[in-house]
């Protein structure tokens, strides 16, 4: 068996590293504010607004990074943005965004969002609970959209991605293609049990080609 590759080029990996680094600086600066979700004062509200969440998109992450940097530098406003963070190809395609919550969690933080590209429209999906971890499984569709699952073990990752693949429009699946697997040796993800909380379906994709967020077509609570 060949050694599993580290998926260090994925957006999920980059997002995790950026989020940890950024939030550490934010909490250090607002050390007098205990909660990440409090809005009881001006400083608490400001801290809550710049904390990067698990479900934040690349664009939302970028805005929070830039805003916090400008705040630290004492700049009052930003008139233009000279560059754009390239969006993932899945963003402008039909998809189901499944929001997972940590089981037996003590606070409201730690939501995790998984996107199923070219979702087939089923309004009552049976999304499995599982243990998130550093084994990844990935299915690449005909238009280069990707479905990626991070789980505690390879077996767990395979079980979940096989279940979720059934909800992808069949015409986008590559015939006889099987998921690829790998292990993230730096272990950026905690091994935690997660369960589905809500599913949002975007029939036109989560964002259009200009980066504007599209409306949710329908929502389902588990």
Describe, in plain words, how this protein is organized in 3D:
The chain has 222 residues and is α+β, with helices and mostly antiparallel strands. The protein has two domains: 11-73, no CATH class; 89-221, no CATH class. It is built from four helices and eight strands; from the N terminus they run αααβββββαβββ. The strands form two sheets. Strands 1, 2, 3, 7 and 8 form a five-stranded antiparallel sheet that branches. A hairpin with a 5-residue loop joins strand 4 (135-140) and strand 5 (146-151). Helix 1 (11-29) runs parallel beside helix 3. The N and C termini lie far apart (38 Å). Mean pLDDT is 80; it is low at 75-87.
Quick recap:
With 222 residues, this protein is an alpha+beta fold.
List the SSEs and their pairings.
Elements: H1 11-29, H2 42-50, H3 58-73, E1 95-102, E2 112-117, E3 130-132, E4 135-140, E5 146-151, H4 154-165, E6 180-183, E7 192-202, E8 218-221
Antiparallel strand pairs: 1-2, 1-7, 3-7, 4-5, 4-6, 7-8
Helix pairs in contact: 1-3
